[in-house]
C-alpha cells in the first residue's frame, strides 16, 4: 500500500507494492544502472600532445576530454536528471603500456612544464612505429526527480573514447662544426 502523503515530486514516498497489506513497510525505490540505460553521456575525447606523434624515448602527454554531464529524461515513468561524474581514466597503449589516473591529465602549458616532460598521464614509447591508444573513462551516476537531492546509483560505467593513432619516430641531434666534407674529423662528423 502506498503512503497517504505520496506525491509525484517525491517518488520515494510512493514506492512499494500497491497490492501489499496496509501495515507492511514501504520498500524504497532502488535505481540501477540498467534503469538509466536510456541516458547516454557523450564519449570522452582522447587527446595527446604533440598531436598524433611522439619521439622514441621521450614522454608523450595524454589528456582526456571528459567532465560532469547532466542528462534529462524519463526514469521510472517520471521526469528525472541523471548526472555522470568521471572518477577514473585509463589509457591502454598498443605497445602494452597502461596509464591510470584519477584525473583527465593536463597539457604541458597548463602544468607549467616544458614539452616532452613526464606527467601523470604521459607514456614513453621505446621503439619507432605506429601505435594506438584506447581511452576508457569510468563514471559514477546519480539521479534526481524534480530537483530533489542527488541519489547515488550503485556501480560505475566505463565510457570509451575513439582510439588515438600515434606515429613514433626517432630523433637524433648532431652538432657539427662547419662542413663534415671539409673537416671529416670535426665534432659530429
TrEMBL record:
It comes from Agromyces ramosus. This is PKD domain-containing protein. It comes from the Bacteria. Residues 1-25 are annotated as: Disordered. Residues 1-10 have a biased composition (Basic and acidic residues). InterPro entries: PKD_dom. Residues 85-137 form the PKD domain.
Amino acid at each position: 500500500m502506498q503512503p497517504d502523503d505520496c506525491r509525484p515530486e517525491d517518488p520515494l514516498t510512493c514506492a512499494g507494492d500497491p497490492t501489499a497489506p496496509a501495515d507492511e513497510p514501504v520498500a524504497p525505490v532502488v535505481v540501477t544502472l540498467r534503469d538509466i540505460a536510456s541516458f547516454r553521456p557523450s564519449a570522452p575525447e582522447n587527446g595527446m600532445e604533440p598531436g598524433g606523434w611522439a619521439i622514441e624515448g621521450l614522454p608523450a602527454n595524454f589528456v582526456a576530454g571528459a567532465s560532469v554531464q547532466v542528462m534529462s529524461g524519463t526514469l521510472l515513468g517520471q521526469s528525472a536528471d541523471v548526472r555522470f561524474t568521471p572518477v577514473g581514466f585509463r589509457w591502454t597503449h598498443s605497445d602494452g603500456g597502461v596509464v591510470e589516473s584519477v584525473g583527465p591529465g593536463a597539457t604541458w602549458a597548463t602544468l607549467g612544464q616544458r614539452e616532452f616532460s613526464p606527467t601523470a598521464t604521459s607514456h614513453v614509447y621505446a621503439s619507432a612505429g605506429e601505435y594506438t591508444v584506447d581511452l576508457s573513462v569510468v563514471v559514477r551516476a546519480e539521479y534526481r526527480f524534480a530537483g530533489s537531492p542527488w541519489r547515488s546509483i550503485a556501480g560505475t560505467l566505463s565510457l570509451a573514447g575513439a582510439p588515438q593513432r600515434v606515429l613514433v619516430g626517432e630523433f637524433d641531434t648532431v652538432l657539427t662544426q662547419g662542413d663534415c666534407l671539409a673537416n671529416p674529423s670535426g665534432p659530429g662528423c
